Amino acid sequence: MWEVNQLTFAYDDKKTVLDQVSFKIETGKIYCLLGVNGSGKTTLFNCLSGFLKSNYSLDKYFIDNKLLYIQDEMHFYKNLSGLEFTELIFSLKDKKFDLAEFDRLLSKLKMNDYKNERISAYSLGTKQKLVLIIGILLNYQYIIMDEPFAAIDFIAAEVINDVLKELKEQGKAIIVSTHQLDIAQELADEILFLNDGKVNQIINNFQTPRELKNYIRLYI
Ligand SMILES: Nc1ncnc2c1ncn2[C@@H]1O[C@H](COP(=O)(O)OP(=O)(O)OP(=O)(O)O)[C@@H](O)[C@H]1O
User: Which of 38, 96, 156, 200 could form a Cys-Cys staple with 193, CB 3.0–4.6 A?
Assistant: First the structure.
């Protein structure tokens, strides 16, 4: 269980973006973080992962060993191939690289053709898939993903849905921000709805995306 209590953050004195945000994350569940543009989803993720300093006290061991943050903007060595980059990450982290599992995931995410291709030739969606594969291989317990579906076609989105469900079955906790209510309604066990600086944590009992939308509309 990962508990966030009363996290507050402001970029400057004028406006508090996150105002005593509290929620609980359990392993074996998928959480979708929803909120209108500018509500603070990326800011929240940056505070949780230590990229921004808030009043939330960070646990360095947790951040280094348990938490994977897949950002919407990622940095690569673009002259390396997907395989070389992945191997590099594993050597930097001093972890054993499982090539067979890498190949299985590449195949599952329809990425075989990119294995030996330079990352400079990857589309944004392909780069996001590569990071997801690396994250799965590194076996983090908590995975935060900022808008992973934004740059991904609907076929790939279905595959990623399946991969996330597989991770959930393995006992991981996944927090995904998205604007796509159909994905949230289909995927999430719980919704984290960020509005006016607060997080509302709701069990996802919504039967349709429209039901979820109608609920959210009550607040905004
Ligand atoms: N570096 C920054 N300096 C000052 N204000 C910022 C900075 N980054 C974001 N903000 C402001 O903080 C608020 C929250 O932004 P954030 O990017 O976290 O929202 P978001 O929910 O992720 O938005 P979106 O759905 O558009 O991606 C917005 O008002 C934004 O303008």
Answer: 200
